[in-house]
Design brief:
The chain has a single domain, classed as Four Helix Bundle (Hemerythrin (Met), subunit A). 74% of the residues lie in helices and 0% in strands. Helix 1 packs across helix 5, helix 2 runs parallel beside helix 5 and helix 3 runs antiparallel to helix 4. 22% of the residues are buried. This is TMM79 protein. One of its GO terms (biological process) is regulated exocytosis. Keywords: Membrane, Transmembrane, Transmembrane helix.
């Protein structure tokens, strides 16, 4: 489903990436796009804090209720996946040709939407969360494989440069 979503958005959404000739300009563009990917994480932190305040637990270090545990787990996993996403996206931006830089905001949107889908499905039940997690993890895995291919096959002479 993820490749179909990315391909459809790439073809049908009417925007292009700005002209980014240098690596530093590409990294700044990636950093700006990644700021939007923090939205689900920050929203999760806010909801986690509110649920912690509204829970009936009197002991702050006691056992958490299911509602509080869901939001805490979501935030923890989202932070870890965002770090992996951001570093892969930064490396990906250095290897993509100019005409494919439109993928950076599309992958950012897919990350944000898939984290929100994971959160909703995790709140419904633990058995439903695989769809949202796979929508987050499989594009991340594809980016990692492309980055490794770019580093070791396309430009091995610039590996440590």
């Amino acid at each position: 489903l993820c490749p179909c979503l990315i391909y459809g958005a790439y073809i049908f959404l009417p925007f292009d990436a700005p002209l980014l000739p240098t690596v530093s300009a590409r990294l700044v563009y990636t950093l700006r796009c990644a700021a939007f990917a923090t939205f689900p994480v920050i929203l999760g932190m806010i909801v986690s804090g509110i649920s912690r305040l509204c829970s009936s637990a009197l002991e702050p270090f006691g056992e958490l209720h299911r509602e509080v545990e869901i939001h805490r787990t979501y935030v923890s996993q989202s932070v870890h996946l965002f770090i992996l996403y951001f570093f892969n996206m930064a490396v990906l931006a250095t290897y993509l040709p100019q005409e494919l830089l439109k993928l950076i905001p599309l992958l950012t949107g897919l990350f944000a939407i898939s984290r929100l889908i994971f959160w909703m499905s995790y709140a419904i039940g633990r058995s439903f969360r695989a769809f949202g997690f796979s929508m987050t993890f499989l594009p991340l895995l594809a980016m990692l494989l492309w980055n490794l291919y770019g580093m070791f096959v396309l430009e091995p002479e610039n590996l440590l440069a």
